[in-house]
Amino acid sequence: MKTDLDLAQFVQCVGDAIIAVDRRGEIILWNPGAVRLLGHSADEVLGKSMDFFIPHASRKPHWDGFHSAIASGQTHLGTNLIRVPALHKNGQTIRIALTVGILRDAEDQIEAIGAIIREDLQAPKQTD
């Protein structure tokens, strides 16, 4: 797809969280939507593991799927919307809905895995 659209500007202005991680699972992209949704600034998270926003009980299945996608070159999620819990900076568990995609370089090697994330408004509201 050829476009004159400034994709960096697009990533910065959309309301949804857009994040990307490198092959090690370290965050390389964290847009303002991710700041709004999860509470952490880009300076706090760039170069760090995603573990800070993945609930402890979800980490093993998350990393198993991540490493499988890196090894196989594809994600079993495809373009399906998935709904999972996430941890906000304030310690609260929130429900998110996301899609993921594998980003490849010019030689078709996996460069990163990206996700577009938003609050899961279909999830039941939690009461304190």
Automatic annotation (TrEMBL):
GO terms for biological process: regulation of DNA-templated transcription. Residues 3-55 form the PAS domain. The keyword Membrane does not apply. CDD domains: PAS (cd00130). Its EC number is 2.7.13.3. GO terms for molecular function: protein histidine kinase activity. It comes from the Bacteria. This is Sensor protein FixL. It comes from Rosistilla oblonga. The lineage of its organism: Bacteria, Pseudomonadati, Planctomycetota, Planctomycetia, Pirellulales.
